[in-house]
């Protein structure tokens, strides 16, 4: 076998084991950009997060509405307003709640009764049970009414159950709901 020499200056004339340096090679053809991975999982998670956010927002709004309905004072009718006022003023002894049911903040005759009850409880060392009974609406006009109610105070003193009842008349007015404007003991 005869060896054939390539012409001088040709690339083949180099030693077969030698390679050309990479900077002398022609640039590699650009490789196509890889396809982005499918974003199906991200889309599903985004939809689920959106639905959960809407459900949370709906729950917050529903809770707010229900709380406002439950916490709002019921002044729907004259008798309901009087009973709720007496419950707040005499039973719960919560003057700030009682003011929600009045025209001008206080009903002096009821405030005096509450002070009298507190004084007697302290004097006797007992706790009175207050009941509002026989509530009836009379003299109803478009925005004014009178309500008659019996306020019963009961307690056990020295083992003997005692009770005292007074009849009261309350003047109520419809001012964005019925409110107690005046009250007086009538018997």
The biggest sheet amounts to: 4 strands, antiparallel
Overall outline: rod-shaped
**Major beta sheet, strand line-up:** 1-2-3-4
Mean pLDDT over the residues: 85
Assembly type of the chains comes to: single chain
Task: Find the count of extended strands (DSSP E, 2+ residues).
Answer: 4
Distance between the termini: 144 Å
Beta-strand percentage?
A: 25-35%
Extract low-pLDDT stretches.
none
SS-derived structural category:
alpha+beta
Helix content: 25-40%
Number of helical regions: 4
Give the SSE string. HHHHEEEE
- Radius of gyration equals 45 Å
Explain this structure to me?
With 187 residues, this protein is of the alpha+beta class. The chain is 36% helix and 25% strand. It contains four helices and four strands; from the N terminus they run ααααββββ. The chain has helices at residues 40-71, 78-91, 95-98, 108-124, and strands at residues 129-138, 144-157, 160-174, 178-185. The protein has a four-stranded antiparallel sheet, covered by helices on one side. Strand 1 (129-138) and strand 2 form a beta hairpin. The protein is rod-shaped. The termini are far apart. 14% of the residues are buried.
Helix/strand layout:
Blueprint: H1 40-71, H2 78-91, H3 95-98, H4 108-124, E1 129-138, E2 144-157, E3 160-174, E4 178-185
Antiparallel strand pairs: 1-2, 2-3, 3-4
What's a concise summary of this model?
The chain is 36% helix and 25% strand. With 187 residues, it is α+β, with helices and mostly antiparallel strands.
